[in-house]
Amino acid sequence: MAALLWEIFSTDLAFVGLDVSDQKELFEAMGGRLEELGYVRDSFIDAVAARERRFPTGLDLGDAAVAIPHTDPEHVNENAIAIANLIHPVPFRQMGSTEEEDCWVQVKLVIMLAISGGNYIDMLQRVIQSIQDPGVVKRLLGARRSEEFIEIVRKKEEGQ
Could you give the C-alpha distances from 151 to 8, 110, 148, 159, in angstroms and in order? Predict the structure, then answer.
């Protein structure tokens, strides 16, 4: 069985109240930490940005917007998930939209996936499933300590 999401989260990859102004700063902060800790290759940040342009990951969930930036497994050394709640919203194109369409969402919660190998799609689906719960998103947005992120996801996966 694949690892549970909360088992892949790390307090070293949790950003509480991240203060960035755009996607570039966001990807550099989150992707830079992943790279610094050896989870991803030095190609990861550019690959995430390129993939985001082609296949946007912004999701409008009604009360909040979430983005799940990620890229292909060849840029990943070891599975990891970075998470951030943002001080200021960052615009992301809505998932499923094209560059010609002007469909943007103002994201305040970002879950960056660094997943290698065959469980890439499974992990993405599980993250999307978890954030479909408005209570989970609200708690993640309100988290004030990095440990809270892990606890919230663990409780969701354990059905609490």
Answer: 12, 17, 5, 12
> Pick from 65, 12, 78, 23: which is nearest to 45 by CA?
23
Residue 49 falls in which region: left (phi positive, over 0), alpha (psi -120 to 50) or beta: alpha
Dihedral angle computed from the Cα positions of residues 143, 5, 73 and 102, in that order, rounded to the nearest 10 degrees = -50
Question: Hey, which residues does 110 pair with through a beta bridge?
Answer: 67, 84
What are the sequence ranges of the domains in the chain? Answer: 5-157
Question: Distance (Å, rounded) from C-alpha 3 to C-alpha 1?
Answer: 7
Q: Point out which residues pair with 65 in neighbouring strands.
A: 60
pLDDT in tens, 73-99: 999 999 999 999 999 999 999 998 877
CATH assignment of 5-157, given 3.40.930.10, 3.40.50.300, 3.30.750.24, 3.30.390.30? 3.40.930.10
